[in-house]
Amino acid sequence: MNAARIILSVLFISCMVWLWYPYFTQTNIVPQPEPEVIAKPDYIAIELKQTAYDEQGKISHKVTAAKMELYQQLGFTFFEKPIFTLYNEKQTWQINADEATLYEDKQLILEGNVVAKNLTDNAMIDKINADNIQVDIKLLTMRSEQPVIITGPNLKITGKGLEADLKTEVIKLINHTRTIYYDQ
Questions:
Q1: Rounded to two decimals, what is the model's pTM?
Q2: Which of 147, 66, 79, 64 lies closest to 110 in space, CA to CA?
Q3: Of 107, 85, 84, nearest to 97 (Cα)?
Q4: Backbone angles phi, psi at 124, to 5 degrees
Q5: Beta strand 59-71 pairing with 92-96
Q6: Taking the alpha carbons of 79, 172, 127, 124 in that order, is the dihedral positive or negative?
Q7: Burial class (CB in 10 A: 0-12, 13-18, 19+), 79
Q8: In this structure, are residues 68 and 79 in contact, taking their beta carbons and an 8 Å threshold?
Q9: Which residue spans within the chain are E strands per DSSP?
Q10: DSSP assignment, residue 167?
Q11: pLDDT in tens for each of the 184 residues of the chain?
Q12: Which of 70, 98, 69, 71 has the alpha carbon at shortest distance from 83?
């Protein structure tokens, strides 16, 4: 009877080890938290081309972008690789960047490799480069608190901070750093 007890005990312990072995040898798998989605876009457009008009029926601005996401409830539109063309009676400016956010009150914030080109012939300023520019599409103004480089046919101006009124063609640097005039 002792032999039977020993065999049953060994068999019982073997079965328990076999059943519980996966539990003791498993590695702790920590579930990866899914990224929290604050909001989903109401509308997505790929290869966007859009023209906006003012109250008088004149072209206010044009937009092209690799991708556009509209967040109606949050009150903004996000653009990837946008190109905004702003029309004025005197000058036309084309502004491109890596990304941009347009708010319902026509405030546009462009970020990453921002280049504003003056498309008007014989203008004193051809281009403005910055990392961040804020544009008021209604008032046709540009602002930046970042370092900027302004280039023209015969000059290069560097500084930090910019205020530009595209209607009156006045561009002001907040902190002027350096101006280089090239020979004509």
A1: 0.73
A2: 79
A3: 84
A4: -70, -30
A5: unpaired
A6: positive
A7: buried
A8: yes
A9: 43-53, 59-71, 76-80, 83-87, 92-96, 99-103, 107-118, 127-136, 141-151, 155-165, 170-181
A10: T
A11: 677 778 878 878 887 788 777 777 777 767 777 777 677 888 889 999 998 888 888 888 899 999 999 998 888 999 999 999 988 877 888 999 999 999 988 899 999 999 999 888 887 888 999 999 999 988 889 999 989 998 888 888 888 988 988 888 788 888 777 776 776 5
A12: 98
Closest CA to 110 of 60, 150, 148: 148
Q: How many CB atoms lie within 10 A of CB 152?
A: 15
d(CA 168, CA 112): 27
**Distance in angstroms (rounded) separating the CA atoms of residues 135 and 18:** 70
Q: Which residues pair with 120 in a beta bridge?
A: none
Residues 6+ positions from 105 with CB-CB distance below 8 Å: 138
CA–CA gap between residue 172 and residue 142 (Å, rounded): 10
Select from 78, 163, 92 the least CA-distant residue to 126: 92
End-to-end CA distance of the chain: 115
